[in-house]
From TrEMBL:
Protein name: Transcriptional regulator
Entry-linked InterPro entries: Cro/C1-type_HTH (IPR001387), Lambda_DNA-bd_dom_sf (IPR010982)
GO terms, molecular function: DNA binding
Pfam family, one: HTH_3
SUPFAM superfamilies xref list: lambda repressor-like DNA-binding domains
Superkingdom per UniProt: Bacteria
C-alpha cells in the first residue's frame, strides 16, 4: 500500500473506531464485505476509489478536492468546529491508571462481574476520543476505585461505576439524533 493511501485509510479507520463501529457494521452501511474492509485496514489490499468513498460516506465523511492554497484555511475551519477533546496522551495515561487500579482490586478482592464490566468499558473507551465531560466521569470513577481499594466496605460502588461507564459507552456507541418534526412551514429544510 502506498504511503498516501495508507494515511487516508488510517484516518477512515480512526473515524470508524471513534464512532465505535465494528467492521461488520461498516460493511452493512457501506455495501462492502467485512473481509474487504479488513483487508483494506490491514494494508493487504489497496482500496479502489469507489470502495474508499463508500467507506468514508458510511462514516459520515465526504471526500473533497481542495486547492492547495485553501488547504490551511479549510484545516483551520475544521479545527475550530471540532469539540475540545483531551489530548490522546493524557487519555491513555488516565486509562492506564484505571487499569492498574482494577488489576490491584482483582488481586485484593478476587474477580467480580462488576470489575469485569468496568474493565470491558475501559477497553472500549480508551479507543475513542472522549469529551471533557466524559473524561471527568471516567476520572471520578477512577477516584472511587482508589477509595474502594482502601475501604472494602465500598464494594457496592463497583456496580454504580460500571453503570456510569456503561452510560458513556452507550452514548458513544449509539448516538441519538434530536427528533425532527415530520413537517416544516419554512422552505429551508432538505427535501
Amino acid at each position: 500500500m502506498s504511503y498516501q493511501s495508507e494515511e487516508l485509510i488510517r484516518e477512515v479507520q480512526g473515524q470508524r473506531i471513534r464512532a465505535a463501529m465494528s467492521q461488520r457494521a461498516l460493511a452493512v452501511r457501506s455495501g462492502l464485505t467485512q473481509a474487504h474492509i479488513s483487508q483494506i485496514e490491514t494494508g493487504r489490499l489497496e482500496p479502489g476509489l469507489s470502495s474508499f468513498i463508500q467507506m468514508a460516506r458510511a462514516l459520515d465523511l465526504e471526500v473533497v478536492l481542495v486547492p492547495k492554497k485553501l488547504l490551511p484555511a479549510v484545516e483551520g475551519m475544521l479545527r475550530s468546529t471540532t469539540p475540545e477533546f483531551l489530548a490522546e496522551e493524557g487519555q491513555s495515561a488516565l486509562f492506564a491508571k484505571g487499569e492498574r487500579l482494577l488489576a490491584k482490586l482483582k488481586k485484593l478482592q478476587g474477580g467480580s462481574a462488576a470489575l469485569d464490566r468496568i474493565a470491558e468499558y475501559f477497553r472500549f473507551l480508551k479507543q475513542v476520543r472522549l469529551s471533557k465531560d466524559d473524561v471527568a466521569l471516567v476520572e471520578d470513577s477512577i477516584k472511587i476505585l482508589r477509595h474502594i481499594r482502601a475501604d472494602p466496605q465500598l464494594r457496592a460502588e463497583l456496580d454504580n461505576i460500571a453503570g456510569l461507564l456503561q452510560v458513556v459507552r452507550n452514548r458513544i456507541a449509539h448516538p441519538t439524533e434530536a427528533p425532527r418534526p415530520a413537517y416544516a412551514l419554512d422552505e429551508d429544510h432538505d427535501a
